[in-house]
Amino acid sequence: MRITHTFTRTHVHISFADPYLTCGRCHGRCHGWVDAWHDPQQCGCDDSGWELLPCGHQAEATGVCPSWGPVDGCTCLQTFGSVPHGQPGTD
């Protein structure tokens, strides 16, 4: 969780555990990886509902790593012999 402050509000962003997520609407074309979500209703921004960050779309987060797990992380190289996706923070 990270907290950001503006002149009028405190925003809470909930980070995803899986770093290999893209926006189901733009599939990473706009901003690359999706790393958190923000619920504008909680901080009083507006009443439009939660949004993915950093793209801002109201869509599902789509996993692009078929072997990611919370314990071992990405095991694509060991499981499939290759990595069918990029690395978060480098694309």
Descriptive tags:
91 residues, mainly beta, 4-stranded antiparallel beta sheet, 2 helices, 6 strands, 10% helix, 24% strand
Please give the share of residues in helix. under 10%
Low-confidence stretches: none
Number of separate structural domains: 1
The strand line-up of the biggest sheet is 1-2-4-5
- Which structural class fits the helix and strand makeup? mainly beta
Mean pLDDT: 80
Provide an overview of this structure.
The protein has 91 residues and is mostly beta strands. It has one domain (2-80). The chain contains two helices and six strands. It has helices spanning 40-43, 76-80; strands at 2-5, 10-15, 21-23, 36-38, 51-53, 61-63. It has a four-stranded antiparallel sheet with strand order 1-2-4-5. A two-stranded antiparallel ribbon has the order 3-6. The two termini are 23 Å apart. The model has no long low-confidence stretch (mean pLDDT 80).
Quick structural gist:
With 91 residues, this protein is mostly beta strands.
SSE layout and pairings?
Layout: E1 2-5, E2 10-15, E3 21-23, E4 36-38, H1 40-43, E5 51-53, E6 61-63, H2 76-80
